[in-house]
């Protein structure tokens, strides 16, 4: 009897705060496993408010079929200099509008960044897609630039410097005029913004910038990235989550890239929501987990090892680049 009385008292104290946010405000941790404040031991410990468990509402739910059949196609098409071939083979109503290929290295050897726009009058959709990291030189630039710090995106927080520069090189290389033209021509169309790896970070920044300058409303944007590295700091993740109702970061199994650059404290790089983790080979019908927490030792971050090949293998395509170069067949 004494044991149960003590146990009941502990539960009462642990559960005195009824929500994750209130629990953290009181200086305690939230245990997501049992949905109780200060409960211990606990596997899923929440110490940052951005990690308080939450998922998109039903009107902005994740759809495996949409991402697998349409977003993945537009992402892979970016590996071609002429993306139209992929659409001719798999989505004939989509037409490429413009492509952009610019040097996106502020210092050091030249490295290329590529993006394209497209439109579909049948689906009433605009597309903006960014290509991922190309080659060892660009990857080395990204890694070394982590030590160069972050750059401000105004009220939206701060962005890892390499990703910031990469996006604005493309933006100032003609993308700005293109997006204004497409908005003028197809003002009521939905906008899909996609990208893989480096392209995922550029897609995230693009969505943010388009909203910041008032060109597109966040509710008209669907942002889906694959294998996206950490892009901005905690302030950026907070602003992003408060702004975009439809935003998903797809992660395949043990892909190491979503876990770099590393987090180092509250104000360093931090993922925005919502991670969709496929802890399998991503074949049709495979299960996936919507991660209710933004970033930390949750979902895919609980893996103790990494598999580099998983970074190029999404939705049961063994090499996204080869698939895209072959015309998505």
From TrEMBL:
Stretches assigned to the Fungal lipase-type domain = 127-263
Q: Which residues form the signal peptide?
A: 1-16
Decide whether keyword Signal is in the record: yes
CDD domains recorded: Lipase_3
Q: Name the Pfam families on file.
A: Lipase_3
> What InterPro entries does the record tag this protein with?
AB_hydrolase_fold, Fungal_lipase-type
The biological process GO terms on file are: lipid metabolic process
Question: Which UniProt key words apply to this protein?
Answer: Signal
> By its UniProt entry, which PANTHER family does this protein fall under?
FUNGAL LIPASE-LIKE DOMAIN-CONTAINING PROTEIN, PROTEIN CBG11750-RELATED
Q: What is this protein called?
A: Fungal lipase-type domain-containing protein
């Amino acid at each position: 009897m004494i044991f149960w009385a003590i146990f009941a008292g502990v539960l009462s104290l642990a559960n005195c705060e009824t929500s994750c946010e209130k629990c953290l405000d009181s200086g305690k941790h939230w245990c997501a496993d049992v949905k109780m404040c200060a409960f211990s031991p606990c596997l899923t410990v929440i110490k940052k408010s951005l990690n308080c468990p939450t998922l998109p509402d039903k009107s902005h739910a994740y759809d495996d079929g949409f991402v697998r059949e349409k977003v993945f196609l537009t992402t892979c098409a970016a590996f071609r200099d002429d993306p139209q071939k992929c659409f001719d083979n798999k989505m004939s109503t989509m037409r490429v509008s413009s492509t952009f290929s610019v040097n996106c290295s502020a210092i050091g050897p030249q490295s290329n960044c590529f993006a394209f726009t497209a439109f579909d009058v049948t689906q009433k959709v605009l597309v903006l897609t960014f290509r991922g990291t190309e080659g060892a030189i660009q990857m080395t630039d990204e890694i070394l630039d982590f030590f160069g710090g972050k750059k401000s995106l105004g009220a939206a927080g701060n962005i890892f410097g390499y990703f910031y520069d990469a996006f604005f090189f493309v933006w100032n290389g003609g993308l700005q005029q293109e997006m204004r033209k497409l908005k003028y021509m197809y003002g009521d169309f939905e906008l899909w913004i996609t990208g893989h790896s480096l392209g995922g970070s550029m897609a995230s920044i693009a969505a943010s910038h388009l909203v910041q300058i008032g060109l597109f409303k966040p509710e008209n944007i669907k942002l889906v990235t694959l294998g996206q590295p950490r892009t901005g700091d905690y302030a950026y993740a907070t602003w992003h989550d408060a702004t975009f109702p439809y935003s998903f970061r797809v992660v395949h199994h043990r892909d190491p890239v979503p876990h770099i650059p590393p987090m180092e404290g509250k104000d360093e790089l931090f993922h925005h929501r919502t991670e969709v983790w496929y802890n399998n080979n991503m074949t049709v019908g495979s299960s996936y987990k919507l991660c209710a927490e933004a970033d930390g030792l949750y979902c895919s971050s609980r893996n103790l090892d990494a598999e580099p090949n998983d970074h190029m293998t999404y939705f049961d395509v063994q090499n996204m680049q080869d698939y895209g170069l072959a015309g998505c067949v």
